[in-house]
Specification:
By secondary structure, this protein is an alpha+beta fold. It has one domain: Phosphoglycerate mutase-like (Rossmann fold). About 35% of the residues lie in helices and about 10% in strands. The protein has helices at about 1-10, 20-30, 35-40, 45-50, 70-80, 100-105, 150-155, 160, 165-170, and strands spanning about 110-120, 120-130, 130, 150. Strands 1, 2, 3 and 4 form a four-stranded antiparallel β-sheet that branches. A hairpin with a 2-residue loop joins strand 1 and strand 2. The radius of gyration is 16 Å and the shape is globular.
Length: about 170
């Protein structure tokens, strides 16, 4: 299953990450309370729904999105979470392998993103199946708490804010 998800929808699939771009842009819109992230998305965001405050509200304390495990793996790849330093080998798992599908998308798996305010500063923290994630892709992240400044988190999502940097067009769209 590690190979299936990694090479089917994750980092090992050249177009795996672009399948998660729309979700990441919706997440950025919600975290920043700025609809521009979804309005500028030219990938798979439903612009009709996301342009409306009725069907895509901002400024809420809690959001819940539901999807398939294939989509979660693409979202992680778009975001930069669970990235192995090298591609997975077909010969089997190696010691210290970061991408472990049974830990990422077991039956009923979940990705939780929290917006945490400490003092006057906003931070993002993520958990996969209740396990704290350390966002190494986020400049200035805290290695113990997983907290990443909101501005730094947004800046780290350049792949998504740039519409997959041309990868979406490779899908024939």
């Amino acid at each position: 299953m590690d190979l299936d998800k990694y090479y089917g929808n994750g980092y090992g699939q050249p177009l795996g990450a672009v399948q998660g771009v729309g979700y990441v842009n919706e997440l950025l819109a919600r975290l920043t309370n700025q609809r521009a992230y979804v309005l500028n998305d030219q990938t798979q965001v439903n612009s009709t729904l996301d342009a409306s405050a009725t069907t895509f509200p901002l400024g809420r304390k809690l959001y819940a999105d539901f999807t398939h495990d294939n989509q979660i793996t693409s979202i992680l790849a778009a975001m930069g979470l669970k990235k192995d330093p090298s591609a997975l080998a077909a010969t089997g798992p190696r010691s210290g392998q970061v991408w472990v599908t049974s830990e990422i998308v077991p039956f009923g798996g979940n990705l939780v993103t929290e917006l945490v305010t400490c003092g006057k500063k906003d931070y993002v923290r993520m958990l996969i199946n209740d396990e704290l994630q350390i966002p190494t892709f986020c400049e200035g992240h805290d290695k113990k708490t997983g907290l990443c400044g909101l501005a730094q988190f947004v800046a780290s999502q350049e792949y998504s804010t740039a519409n997959g940097q041309g990868d979406y067009a490779k899908c024939g769209n």
